[in-house]
Write a structure and sequence with these properties.
Strand order of the largest sheet: 1-2-3-10-5-8
Strand content: over 45%
Helix content: under 10%
CATH topology: Jelly Rolls
Number of helices: 0
CATH architecture: Sandwich
Number of domains: 1
Shape: globular
CATH superfamily: Jelly Rolls
Largest sheet: 6 strands, antiparallel
Structural class: mainly beta
Radius of gyration: 14 Å
Length: 121
């Protein structure tokens, strides 16, 4: 039997969301309620759905590609290694402005729960 602090690989696969991007959840488990971690992938020319996360702050960390993130109506260019710190309950979306997929880590605090997602479109 594994210790209670161990979270095994659940074999998470990439899935499509209504947000207009692909998500691979790396960590989103009740055993780790303080945070979740996912990789988002946005295809070239696509802008994700304008949305907010109720009670959850989010940090985007770009690992591939480039884009423009909009947080609370303010746009900012993002490139590999750049981060966007998005407070809870704040309108957000991201556009892939490059010719290849835009990929970024999504670190949510506390962990992401589907009921916290609110479309603003």
């Amino acid at each position: 039997m594994a210790p209670e602090w161990f979270v095994g690989n659940a074999g998470s696969k990439e899935f499509w969301t209504e947000e207009r991007c692909y998500i691979t959840e790396l960590l989103n488990d009740p055993a780790s309620p303080d945070a979740s971690l996912a990789v988002a992938r946005v295809e070239p020319g696509v802008t994700t759905q304008l949305h907010k996360l109720v009670g959850i702050s989010e940090r985007y960390i770009v690992r591939k590609g480039k884009g423009v993130v909009e947080v609370d109506g303010i746009a900012q260019l993002l490139d590999v290694g750049d981060q966007a710190v998005i407070p809870a309950d704040t309108a957000q979306r991201i556009t892939n402005t490059g010719e290849t997929d835009l990929e970024f880590y999504c670190l949510c605090v506390p962990r992401f729960r589907p009921g916290s997602y609110v479309s603003l479109e």
